[in-house]
Amino acid sequence: MNETHHICYDRILPKDLARPLPVRVLDTRDGEQARSVVPDIRKLWVNGSTLRVRFLGGSAQDRALVREQAGWWTEHANLKFDFKDALDGDIRIAFDTGDGAWSYIGTDATSIPQDQPTMNLGFLDGGTAAHEFGHAIGLGHEHQNPEGGIEWNEAVVIRDLGGPPNRWTPQQVRHNVLDKYQVNQFLHGSDFDPHSIMLYAFPGTWTKSGQGTKSNHVLSETDKAFIASTEAYPRTKAEPAVLQVNGTPVEGAIGKAGEEDVYLFTVAAASRHVIETSGHTDVVMKLFGPDSKTSMIAEDDDSGAGFNPKIVKALAPGKYFIQIRHYNKEGGTGAYSIRVRKTG
To answer: Which of 219, 223, 297, 300 would you label with 278, given CA atoms 20 to 30 Å apart?
Structure first.
């Protein structure tokens, strides 16, 4: 394989390697559909977050390019990037030329030790940095959209990507290139976006048709519409609802598939707390804090009654944020209630 064919890959947590990869088709604020490949909508950051970025190397020129291309997303998404090199940065970028280009997906980065990178920019061709920041805020690869119609010469792809500079195993090749997202995971169905920055260029020898794909160096109109949609990072999102510790349960509802509810509560003194939902709606919960929308300290699915999440945690003083989403990210809606109790 010619080394000029630079291919990015998603850095996947071991627990997620066997999971199917969904695609989202979403309504924008203008009522039109936008679609983008989202490996797991539960990996999106809390809307309105400021993500702290730390550089682990890189020249001044490299860093300037990264800051510029990361800003392409924040022109449309309700997110901010803070490039002050915080030691506990949420996104930590290495520039190892021997390790290709890759990124963990969204909040998966919170599982990575703080002395290790969550993204590598081994090359910076075209819009590579913007592509990797797409992963970092929760997007997957466009070429795995089943509507793309790409029929691969699997043996050739596995052979080429098994050599330098990628040196992937067959399993890695299948996960990052060959395995398509499931058609039945679309909400409404959608066309493949050949202009998405989340699509990489592939040589014609990799496809049965002999036709490759081109490199896209800027965000497509669909990329922009999706990332600003109500299901990703809309600027019109309401402020978090306030929960009172030991107060009465607060009623909530997922009114639309993929919707996110965010709650805020304050811990006055170090103590053990229980955060739980109740009702018949199958929701999942993430807990962030103290005083941070990006430092995830716990997540849960079904530890409570029925299909309700429950987090029991000793918490330091500060403000905490709870993110609630439906387990069925493709079509789940329903009412629930949520409460926070101090237990000791």
So the answer is: 297
